[in-house]
Amino acid sequence: MAGISVSVELQEAAARQALRDMLARMGDLRPFYKGVGEILLNSARERFDSQSGPNGAPWAPLKPATVRARIKKNQLPLMILQSNTNGKNSSLKASLNAIPSDKDVRVGSPVRWAAIHQLGGTINKDAGSRYMVGRRFAQRDKEGGKDVSIKAHSIRIPARPYIGVSDLDQERILEAAEEWLSV
Q: Would you place residue 1 in the very low, low, confident or very high pLDDT band (cuts 50, 70, 90)?
């Protein structure tokens, strides 16, 4: 997975041991991990709607400049990490996937900008120039424009964790293991 993959383990020692004991009694673990992947994917997708992390903490709000930029592009300005332009949803939420194996499940996103939104970070932009027509950036083939200098600058992206295991996820995973063993 090129974007981001997060490794987590159950927080409670008793839950961890209970899951280990159950896993030891299972045969082929890939179907179980596939189910765990679905649990974690559904939970991660729900976080985009609630705009909060696995621990329940709300994500940092969008900056006013981001809201203004989205409005100019006819996008919905209120949903964090999601955009909707002319009915086409191009969001991080849509890129999430789960890859189960015999030993674990990896939940993540292949998009290259997924990690900075999960973990936060700074993007350093070099000085350069852009072509502008009036007060808008434009393609160089548009007439009446000019090159303008852009100073070097940094963009700070706050961490907005969407992948992780919540307390409810831990309960669901243990329930799935118990159900798997009872079949």
A: very low
Buried b (16+ CB within 10 A) or exposed e, 5-28: bbeeebeeeebeeebeebeeeeee
Report whether 4 contacts 114 (CB < 8 A): yes
- The CA distance from 56 to 96, in Å, is 19
Taking the C-alpha atoms of residue 167 and residue 161, their distance in angstroms, rounded to an integer, is 15
Overall average pLDDT of the 28-35 stretch: 86
Range in 9-13, 55-59, 92-96, 140-144 the model is least confident about? 9-13
Quick check: 183 pLDDT over 70? no
144 and 87 within one domain: no
CA 60 to CA 74: how far, in whole Å? 22
**What's the number of domains the chain is made of?**
2
What residues make up the domain containing 75? 13-110+162-182
Query: Comparing C-alpha atoms, which of 82, 93, 81 is closest to residue 117?
Result: 81
Rounded distance between C-alpha atoms, residue 181 and residue 183, angstroms: 6
